[in-house]
């Protein structure tokens, strides 16, 4: 089963994603970080296969964390889960920095799992 | 059609309910999210666009109207003047207004769109492009703006009309609530309510987006965001978080729609406000727009836009 780390300052989004991930049968949620800096720490301790990360967070934002994560961990696959997915510049920047995909909020469980399974 | 006309009292009936795609997207993102083109293909297409689509200054140089030195001078002047490059070049007497219009027209005429770029890099053929474009238009049809009337004299009115319209659409699509939207008014005081969630816009516009909710509406929002039948026993923190997350989703989609309109809107993380019973004053130098939203039997939400003048 693939391990997934959820990074979002919103408790309710973290809860939604955790439920989708744990109910899938293919993935297990191994942690929740509330901003980019915490994500880098938890990635180190939990060693997830996939990170689902928001962009707009207080403290270190998602794109800044993505820059560091792709350097620190060549194996982890990062998917941005964000309400800013439809902003062309943000989408392009995320992919250029190494994100594997960008999921827009609001999302549906099926869509999230389809993208995670395709990684 | 005015917002408060009878024909759209319950907007719920005019909009498709939850589907697999509920967000404002641009075509490239739609294709990657659906797995119709790979991440590598879209990056190659974006690279091609960046090579082919000249910026305003580059196009001006290629048309022989300005030099690189002119652009450098204008860029330096931009540090002290908050103006777009083209307008500044005109103000500095470097470019005539008709030349600026010619440059912009040439940019539009020669613009390589992401779909065309994907065909050029071999990721799609023309038939697939047309088919996916049709699917995309269908997907995004619910996000084409309806007409909302603002009081006269509000700057950037198209942006604020779009913001209110997207808020209404997300109330329907994300929260699955029926509501009646009352006509927008300018106010001197933000009326009180159980709680407010607020989020700041910066970039081409400066404003604060505020959604106030009653205790009952807060529970309705929480049920929809958490996808739970009941939210009894949930902590105050999580109930408030769901309202913040709802406005985060709305405002992210507002930023996406604004970028399609050629406008940059950056959003900050949302915050919670507990307003005093007397409400909140409108800060100096701001215009406050209020959009009352009646939910169910006697429950109230209000959208406020505090716009810096």
Question: Which helices and strands appear, and what pairs or packs with what?
Answer:
The complex is a heterodimer of chains A (119) and B (309).
Chain A: E1 2-7, H1 11-23, E2 27-33, H2 36-46, E3 50-53, H3 62-72, E4 77-82, H4 88-97, E5 101-104, H5 109-117
Parallel strand pairs in A: 1-2, 1-3, 3-4, 4-5
Chain B: H1 27-33, H2 39-52, H3 56-62, H4 68-78, H5 85-91, H6 97-110, H7 114-120, H8 126-140, H9 157-173, E1 179-181, E2 185-187, E3 189-190, E4 195-203, E5 207-213, H10 215-226, H11 236-260, E6 265-267, E7 271-273, E8 280-281, E9 286-295, E10 299-308
Antiparallel strand pairs in B: 1-9, 2-9, 3-8, 4-5, 4-6, 4-7, 5-10, 9-10
Helix pairs in contact in B: 2-7, 9-11, 10-11
Structural summary, described in words:
The complex is a heterodimer of chains A (119) and B (309). In chain A, 45% of the residues lie in helices and 23% in strands. Chain A is α/β, with parallel strands linked by helices and 119 residues long. In chain A, α2 (36-46) packs parallel to α3 (62-72). By secondary structure, chain B is an alpha+beta fold. Chain B has 2 domains: 29-140, no CATH class; 147-308, Chemotaxis protein chec, CATH 3.40.1550.10. Helices cover 44% and strands 17% of the residues of chain B. The chains are: A alpha/beta (119), B alpha+beta (309).
- Low-pLDDT residue intervals, each spanning 5 or more residues of chain A: none
The largest β sheet of chain A comes out as:
5 strands, parallel
Residue share in β-strands of chain A? 15-25%
Compute the CA-based radius of gyration of chain A: 13 Å
Q: What's the rounded overall pLDDT mean of chain A?
A: 94
Using the 3D structure, state the CATH architecture of chain A. 3-Layer(aba) Sandwich
Total count of helical runs of at least 4 residues of chain A: 5
Oligomer: heterodimer
Percentage of residues in helical conformation of chain A: 40-55%
Task: Indicate the CATH class of chain A.
Answer: Alpha Beta
Number of domains of chain A: 1
Helix and strand pattern of chain A: EHEHEHEHEH
Structurally, how many domains make up the residues of chain B? 2
Number of helical stretches of at least 4 residues of chain B: 11
CATH superfamily of chain A: Response regulator
* Widest beta sheet: strand line-up of chain A: 2-1-3-4-5
Report the span from N to C terminus of chain A: 14 Å
Total beta strands of chain A: 5
């Amino acid at each position: 089963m693939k391990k997934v780390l959820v990074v979002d300052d919103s408790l309710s989004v973290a809860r939604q994603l955790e439920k989708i991930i744990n109910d899938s049968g293919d993935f297990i949620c191994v942690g929740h970080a509330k901003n980019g800096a915490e994500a880098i720490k938890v990635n180190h301790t939990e060693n997830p296969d996939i990170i689902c990360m928001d962009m707009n967070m207080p403290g270190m934002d998602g794109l800044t964390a993505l820059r560091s994560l792709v350097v620190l961990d060549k194996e982890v696959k990062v998917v941005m889960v964000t309400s800013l997915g439809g902003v062309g510049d943000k989408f392009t920047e995320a992919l250029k920095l190494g994100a594997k995909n960008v999921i827009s909020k609001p999302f549906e469980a099926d869509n999230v799992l389809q993208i995670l399974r395709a990684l | 059609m005015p917002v408060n006309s009878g024909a759209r009292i319950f907007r719920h009936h005019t909009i498709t309910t939850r589907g697999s795609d509920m967000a404002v997207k641009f075509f490239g993102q739609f294709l990657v999210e659906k797995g119709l083109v790979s991440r590598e293909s879209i990056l190659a297409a974006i690279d091609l666009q960046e090579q082919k689509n000249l910026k305003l200054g580059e196009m001006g140089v290629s048309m022989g109207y300005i030099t690189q030195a002119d652009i450098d001078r204008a860029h330096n002047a931009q540090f002290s003047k908050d103006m777009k490059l083209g307008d500044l070049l005109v103000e500095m007497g470097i470019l005539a207004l008709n030349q600026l219009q010619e440059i912009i027209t040439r940019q539009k005429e020669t613009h390589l769109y992401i779909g065309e770029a994907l065909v050029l890099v071999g990721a799609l053929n023309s038939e697939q492009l047309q088919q996916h474009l049709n699917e995309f238009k269908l997907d995004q049809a619910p996000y084409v703006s309806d007409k909302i009337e603002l009081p006269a004299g509000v700057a950037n009115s198209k942006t604020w009309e779009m913001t209110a319209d997207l808020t209404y659409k997300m109330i329907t699509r994300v929260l699955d609530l029926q509501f009646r939207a009352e006509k927008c008014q300018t106010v001197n005081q933000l009326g009180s309510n159980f709680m407010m969630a607020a989020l700041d816009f910066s970039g081409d516009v400066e404003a604060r987006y505020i959604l106030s909710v009653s205790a009952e509406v807060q529970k309705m929002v929480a049920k929809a965001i958490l996808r739970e039948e009941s939210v009894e026993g949930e902590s105050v923190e999580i109930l408030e978080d769901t309202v913040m997350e709802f406005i985060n989703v709305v405002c992210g989609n507002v930023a996406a729609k604004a970028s399609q309109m050629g406008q940059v809107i950056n959003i900050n993380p949302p915050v919670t406000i507990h307003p005093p019973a007397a409400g909140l004053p409108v800060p100096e130098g701001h215009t406050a727009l209020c959009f009352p939203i009646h939910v169910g039997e006697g429950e109230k939400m209000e959208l406020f836009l505090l716009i810096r003048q």
